[in-house]
């Protein structure tokens, strides 16, 4: 078991299987020492646990928990191309999209779910730049979508 996966276990988390693509793309690709993930929805065992707009059908706290799931799915996508999460030198950037009710402005707080998970799992390597964007709708009516970019150590 890798050190990162041991840390996940300590946190009571399990790295899920990679979420299969919903369209014509790959869950993650490597270019040089960087891995770029596709946007990851908060899928759990092939299903969205909650759908709808944050600030309407979904609370900000629920959405923050969903962002954690998105980040965990993103780590699974990274592992699928890197082979081992111990190769992650650092998370460079996180981009998060929040399907928002028209008056909802708490997107950064929602995306803290993903950022905090990456910090808990990867420590200083999980510190990153980030964008939190409110949008009208996401695929499958998901409340949150997260993509990450990581730098790898040389194999």
Would you mind describing this structure in some detail?
With 155 residues, this protein is an alpha+beta fold. Helix content is 30%, strand content 23%. It contains three helices and five strands. Strand 3 (88-99), helix 3 and strand 4 form a beta-alpha-beta unit. Helix 2 (60-82) packs across helix 3 (107-122). The longest helix has 23 residues, at 60-82. The mean pLDDT is 97.
Summarize this structure briefly.
This protein is of the alpha+beta class. The protein has three helices and five strands; from the N terminus they run αββαβαββ. It is globular, with a radius of gyration of 15 Å.
Summary tags:
5 strands; 155 residues; alpha+beta; single chain; 3 helices; five-stranded mixed beta sheet
Uncertain spans, ≥5 residues at pLDDT below 50? none
Across the major sheet, the strand order is 1-2-5-3-4
C-alpha end-to-end distance: 17 Å
pLDDT average, as an integer? Answer: 97
- Structural class by sheet pairing and helices: alpha+beta
**How many strands, what sense, and barrel or not for the largest sheet?**
5 strands, mixed
Helical amount: 25-40%
Write down the overall geometry.
Answer: globular
What fraction strand? 15-25%
Seen as an oligomer or otherwise, the chain set is single chain
Radius of gyration: 15 Å
């Amino acid at each position: 078991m890798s050190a990162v996966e041991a840390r996940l276990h300590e946190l009571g988390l399990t790295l899920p299987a990679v979420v299969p693509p919903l369209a014509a793309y790959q869950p993650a690709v490597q270019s040089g020492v960087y891995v770029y993930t596709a946007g990851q929805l908060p899928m759990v065992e092939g299903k969205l646990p909650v759908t709808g707009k944050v600030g309407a059908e979904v609370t900000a706290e629920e959405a923050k928990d969903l962002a954690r799931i998105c980040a965990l799915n993103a780590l699974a996508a990274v592992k699928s191309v890197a082979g081992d999460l111990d190769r992650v030198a650092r998370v460079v950037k996180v981009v998060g999209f929040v399907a928002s009710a028209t008056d909802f402005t708490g997107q950064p707080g929602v995306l803290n779910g993903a950022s905090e998970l990456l910090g808990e799992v990867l420590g200083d390597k999980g510190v990153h730049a980030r964008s939190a964007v409110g949008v009208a709708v996401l695929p499958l009516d998901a409340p949150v979508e997260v993509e990450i970019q990581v730098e790898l150590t040389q194999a």
